[in-house]
Amino acid sequence: MYADGSVTHDSRRLGYVLVLSASLLWATNGLLSRLVFDSGEIEPRTLAALRVYGATILLAPAVIRARPRLSRRSWLKVAAFGVFGVSVPQWVYFEAIARIPVPIALVIVYTAPVLVTVFERFVRHRKLPKVVYLAIGVAVVGVIFAVTGGRGGAGALELLGVVLAIVTAFAYAAQIMVAAVQPPELHPLVRTGLGMMAGSIFWTFLSPFWRLPFASFGAAIDLGPRVAGSLPAGLLVAGIIVFGTVIPYTMLVSGSPRIGPGASSVTGMIEPVAASILAWVALDQRLTITQVLGVVVALAGVTVAELLRNRTPLSEHFGLLDAAIPP
């Protein structure tokens, strides 16, 4: 960046590389998580708890170094982010991808910005160009084709998995809005670290740390029907925590200010595409032509809606802010 705070061409290029890399790592995270669930060694709820506990430990040094001093109201906001912005979305997302193909779950989840736009329109009374709502309609149609266009139609997918994916989209939309009201004086990594700590307290009641199945960490987990070999469950869990949570989030925090939240959210749309390819290569989760077209149409609709929505001043709407974390 220049001294006046403007962004150089090289800085923007680096920003795109960082955000794109984060999205690819999150796509890989979905694949690794599905491998763990398919093994039967670790349940979705347990993995969600492990992810929060592990991220808390890794981000604790940043929080301790910052020594945040917040008002009671700010602490309540942090606690809400930890529960409704971190723990619940990750938990429900894991439950969804344990039941339906990762690409289908992700394309549903990534309609969350659409839900935020609807919230802005009918609750906050923010008027946006009509083409934004047209794009939203296109995205919804795309999701319908993605869900119903598989072999055997919608009945081929487990209904509970689809419902959980929809719940995840609403949870992710809530995460975006809760993230938008986090204490602005805190560095994003500190905000996230505090949120993870609050999430750890939440999980202490549902999946206490001392009751987690650490004995299963030595179990060998196959790498899928199309990839030979296996890895210990503990190694996959560590990969989900480090490469599926802490590192990509750090990349997002570093890259988003260089290109802006609007560009970051649109660049992040590569995750469902990458996840579709990885799921096909490693898990043999094949989509029909209709489903592929549905995914493309849905993501195109969300992308157009985000591009147009982010043309308005940032103070006038919620954005995919630097404190929001994809599932």
From TrEMBL:
Q: What is its main location?
A: membrane
Alphabetical GO CC annotations of the entry are: membrane
Compartment list: Membrane
Q: Does the keyword ATP-binding apply?
A: no
Write out the entry's keywords from A to Z: Membrane, Transmembrane, Transmembrane helix
Q: What is this protein called?
A: Unannotated protein
Q: Which species?
A: freshwater metagenome
Bilayer topology: Multi-pass membrane protein
Tell me which residues make up the EamA domain: 14-147, 160-304
Instruction: Kindly list the residue ranges recorded as spanning the membrane.
Output: 14-36, 76-94, 100-119, 131-147, 159-181, 193-210, 230-251, 263-283, 289-308
